[in-house]
Amino acid sequence: MKSKIGEGMLVFCIVVFIHFPTIVYGTQTQEVKTEGMISFTGTYEPIGAPEPKPPVHVVKPPSDGSSSLEKTFPQTNMITNTWWKSIGLSLLIIVVCWWGKALKNIYELKESRNEI
């Protein structure tokens, strides 16, 4: 009985952690002095004119058609579609239930053979 409760709690925890991910957004910025190296994303606005000067007309590199909007990397604060996660989780639950019933039937068959 305890193993069934433990298995049920394990499945419940997996479902909760996979199906309901925590989405966090940072809004506060703060200056921190450190001796290490920090990388950042954003726009850099230099003080003064750059040396050497950049070209006046920026030419876009030619596209060979291999890149498209569907093949982009995930961006910061990007919200993904949860339908695929829900379908996958449902399929996983169905397979685990089916596998558990198959193991139970095999166990009962072995028990009935041992009783004879």
Automatic annotation (TrEMBL):
Which keywords has UniProt assigned to this entry? Membrane, Transmembrane, Transmembrane helix
Annotated spans, Disordered: 51-71
TM stretches of this protein: 83-103
* Protein name as annotated: LPXTG-motif cell wall anchor domain protein
Native source organism of the sequence:
Enterococcus casseliflavus ATCC 12755
Q: What is the lineage of its organism?
A: Bacteria, Bacillati, Bacillota, Bacilli, Lactobacillales
